[in-house]
Amino acid sequence: MCGRFALRNPQPVKSQFHLEELEPQYNIFPGIKILTIADEPKFIIWGYTPYWANKPFNLINARGESLRKKPSFRNAGRCIIPADGWYEWKQEDQKKIPYFHHLGESSFCFAGVYGGYRGQVGCAIVTLEATDHLKPIHSRMPAILDKSAYQDWIQGSEEDVYDLSISNKIEFYKVSTIVNNPKNDSEDCCMPV
Q: Please, what are the domains in the chain?
């Protein structure tokens, strides 16, 4: 599961996607508008509900293994979601300890899906089974795409475009529990403890 992520250094993303304004965010959480790219960059709600639902689902993740089979995502569009890290919580004794996952200072994009529900567009991050070195923290991880696969993903390729070689390079470390509060959006959220 991916329930929080960060874009600590937005400059590479601004350059790559020709954006004028994009501020650093250290604690991006569900329910707020996040940057997505499909045909163009847009800020949409992180929380997906299929158009046919009777009430909001607000799904924040979509399992990549069953994406094409689930009715909820059958008519979803595809997008990419820029990030440069994400958080997962590991159960240790009686506490959940947050860990920050990153690729050094490099940014990357998660695979995402989006769709409209009663005039509101929302998205979900696609997740996969975690690679072996990430499993000790959490059994799931966001699906990371190589830049060469961005358009294939967005255009709905049926091929497996997820890049596990990037995921194998992900590093992680413990961070402060200040990240548990979505009101905290400072660099301290992703600093090692």
A: 4-190 (3.90.1680.10)
Name the catalytic one among 20, 21, 79, 88.
88
DSSP 52: T
Place of tokens 């190589």: 146
Per-residue pLDDT at 1 exceeds 80: no
Q: How much is the pLDDT for 165? A: 86
pTM above 0.90, yes or no: yes
Asked if 88 is an active-site residue, the reply is: yes
pLDDT(159) > 90: no
Catalytic one of 2, 109, 123, 189: 2
For the question of residue 2 being annotated catalytic, the response is yes
* Single-letter code of the amino acid located at 61: N
